[in-house]
Amino acid sequence: MRDRETTLDIADHAQWLKQYYFLRAAFSVAWVIAAFAIAPSSAVIAATLLIAYPAWDAAANYLDARCSGGLNENRTQGLNVLVSLAATIAVVLALQVSMNWVLGIFGTWAILSGLLQLGTAVRRWKLFGAQWAMVLSGGQSALAGGFFVFQATMPAAPSIANVAGYAAVGALYFLVSAVWLTVSAWRRSVAM
Question: What is the DSSP secondary-structure string of 23-76?
Fold first, then answer.
């Protein structure tokens, strides 16, 4: 009986992850579209989007941790919530200085949150499929963050487009994970 309950728990959690990954992909796609289509014509909208991105990440990590057994069982996500909230506040402050500072904050945040996402994916690897994409996403995020920090030291002023490319790749990883979980669930149901 216990094995059946564990199997049902894993299936429920896999269903949650699938929905969560689709939600994350949809948000990122919408954010990227707004960054390219609307932000160039309005500094206020660009600033709002730059603040919203790490704030959304904090909220999404909190929601996922809460639906996955709580923050005590998901410490990497709990730390990611704190890192993303700190990044949100830092972006608000950096917007008062320059876009170079904003990109530096995004870079530091991408490194830390990417490594924490990688840790979450490794922890989930034993129970769920599609974590290879989240491992790649976390690693790529950390590398991109290093590149952002480097770009922030250059004299040329960056724009929201620098971050939008990063967000687009993140959306792709979340979509791949969601589709992979969907196909895996479909294969399991066909096999039964």
Answer: HHHHHHHHHHHHHHHTGGG-HHHHHHHHHHHHHHHHHHHHHHHHHTT-TTT-HH
